[in-house]
């Protein structure tokens, strides 16, 4: 799995460019000002970079190449989900650290932000990965944008409820649902990968 | 003899194409060429052997493993080049090695670097910026740098200039010097296979027309060049295929059937395959 992660890190480094700057700005704003859009964008943008690695894997023929290497196909999927979780974790840590240093936001808001990041990041990955694996990055691009819009709208609809004490369980329920979705998504992705044939063009 | 590859009653269909391999094997320590026109089933066969496609029925065994798609350990011993499967285009040779070092237990960095020097490949240049020939050379360097005992190569010399092809054939000839090393190589450039192979299998429209030891195959047939008049004096059943010329006719015949009154010569593999394709049936 280390080899697959290293390959993805190489690719992400080469494709990050301006995106890194955008991630840094959103992370800074999320840590200093808070706000749903800043928080979600600071999480989704690194994940979009990881999706880019999937797109390259498919267009370069690396997906097929890796399937012929001495890995199990399960390992290939494991590395992708591990990378996604790593990126979500990293974005949580960065925003939390910025928030702590800037001391502009109360602690409960920073914790709320971390929960939001995990929840949306997990949903984003859980829905998109199997779609990209099954239909290819190009074909699933529409779904990918759709998922992003739906998640953002969903988040916006829920944000007025954030301070509402009548639904404190939301902070627990939504991440739990996200974890369940992530597990289902992983199982589905492993199954797609195991049955995938590389007949080529 | 011990087999590096065994296929029995393997069927694979997708779309209108059907691959039907009744019986096929590659003996350990030999170089086996897969010959056939585009679309004859060479790449499909190779992808089945690498676990990139799954057979609809039949049995496949590679280095003793009959579940190659799930057998990571056996794949440590296989080097490959296959159509539509490649290294990440944005990475350079040095980064690719950093990744593959973590993949192969026997990765030999010194040998890899020596091959890159020999092939005059720029290690800092992104793979996508390489020419077709350079890409194949890098893939070959990867296939060789973990000391695999079996190479499965799909059209490694296709699209290359004669010099680059010769260089690759030379490297593969060195690889085969070890008696435990086996190569399955597909190509429609039969002259390359003629230089390298011990055995050839001719695929046509998804089926094996014949498998034969190369020298034995070339020894079995002769090309007779004669006049139309003399052709009339010959046994028509002994003429396996014919090619019409302006003043003469070229006939494919079994060596033992060539009459004493005509001149004949040995064919090269390409000529033989073309004429046998016209003949139909089996060898």
UniProtKB/TrEMBL annotation, chain A:
Q: Which residues cross the membrane?
A: 20-41, 81-104, 110-131, 143-161, 167-188
Per the record's keyword annotation, is Isomerase included, yes or no? Answer: no
Pfam families tied to this protein: ABC2_membrane_5
Which InterPro entries does the entry link to?
A: ABC2_memb-like
Q: Which UniProt keywords apply?
A: Membrane, Transmembrane, Transmembrane helix
Which stretch is the leader sequence? none
Work out whether the entry's keyword set contains Nucleotide-binding: no
PANTHER family according to UniProt: MEMBRANE PROTEIN (PTHR41309:SF2), MEMBRANE PROTEIN-RELATED (PTHR41309)
> Could you tell me what this protein is called?
Transporter protein
| UniProt source species | Sphaerochaeta globosa (strain ATCC BAA-1886 / DSM 22777 / Buddy)
The organism's lineage?
Bacteria, Pseudomonadati, Spirochaetota, Spirochaetia, Spirochaetales
